[in-house]
Write a structure and sequence with these properties.
This protein is an alpha/beta fold. About 30% of the residues lie in helices and about 25% in strands. The strands form 2 sheets. The protein has a 5-stranded parallel β-sheet, sandwiched between helices. A 4-stranded antiparallel β-sheet has the order 2-1-4-5, covered by helices on one side.
Length: about 200
């Protein structure tokens, strides 16, 4: 269970949200909506412990994440606007690096992850030579390797083609139907079939 209690965020002297409360449980999706500049990315970064709120606390399993980071981060996968992949490595090497950090996923899992995001045939190409959409898909391939409970995704459908969007939607729904949790911002409106969805509108 993830909770935000009394979260207040101020950026450049402007209050983006004030005394915000939220709660997300296993098997649920939280879709965060709002215009550009409403504070969606700021909220996601606060929930991941990457930024601190002006006021309020984020709890994971009833414990303050600031005092529980090592456990919390084992259950968290965050993919932001920046793909967060190493440009000098290949997609295959990037996923091997992730596996070394997390200790999860074998060779077959990595091959399947690259295939699912449409990078079969590009696994040995340096990431810096790939298109923006392909670099995004390298980052998203981590979803097929992650065993973490909580996935936090900031505009994951950006620069992804229609087939890639369908595959990603299917993977997200499978995750929550198996008891996982997803927090997502998106200008698109995915069709969440058979999922419990909470919506939060900022601004």
């Amino acid at each position: 269970m993830l909770e935000g209690n009394g979260l207040t965020c101020v950026r450049d002297g402007r209050v983006l949200f004030n005394e915000l409360n939220l709660r997300l449980e296993a098997g649920e999706i939280l879709q965060v909506e709002g215009a550009n500049g409403a504070g969606k990315t700021s909220l996601l970064r606060i929930l991941c412990g990457l930024a601190q709120p002006r006021e309020g606390t984020v709890y994971w399993q009833g414990k303050n994440i600031n005092h529980y980071r090592s456990v919390y981060y084992r259950e968290l996968l965050y993919i932001g606007h920046n793909p967060g992949v190493k440009q000098e490595l290949t997609p295959l090497e990037n996923l091997h690096f992730l596996r070394a950090l997390k200790g999860r996923g074998g060779e077959l899992a990595i091959d399947r992850a690259l295939e699912q995001v449409g990078l079969y045939g590009y696994e040995d190409v340096t990431v810096r030579t790939l298109s923006a959409g392909q670099r995004r898909r390298v980052a998203l391939a981590r979803l097929w390797l992650s065993q973490g409970c909580l996935w936090v995704l900031d505009e994951p459908f950006t620069a992804i083609d229609r087939n890639g969007i369908r595959n990603l939607e299917t993977q997200l729904m499978h995750h929550v139907q198996c008891g996982g949790m997803v927090i997502i911002t998106s200008h698109q409106m995915p069709q969440w079939v058979g999922c419990r969805v909470r919506q939060l509108s900022l601004g």
